[in-house]
Amino acid sequence: MKWTDLSDKKLLDRSFAFGLLGITLALLPLVLMQVPVAIGNFGGWLSGLGIALQLLAMSLAVLVIRQRKIAPELQQKAKQMTLVLAVALLFFILV
Fold it and tell me: Which domain holds residue 41?
């Protein structure tokens, strides 16, 4: 089964879930640096996995935007999600 065979609503739900998980995983090493907990070498891995999940979520949102026949409210949600994920991705790349 392809990603393009799924409904627009399901794609947006998965995009939201992947984006939220990506932001959480990318934020975790930043929080653990302030708390006296040794995470070892896993900080880079968590941050990289979080950025990869954010990219996946943004690509799913763009996939919804590019479809031809879509409800305007779903397209607006996909545009907002793309904007939020782009800002979060830029933040975590610059940090």
Answer: 3-94
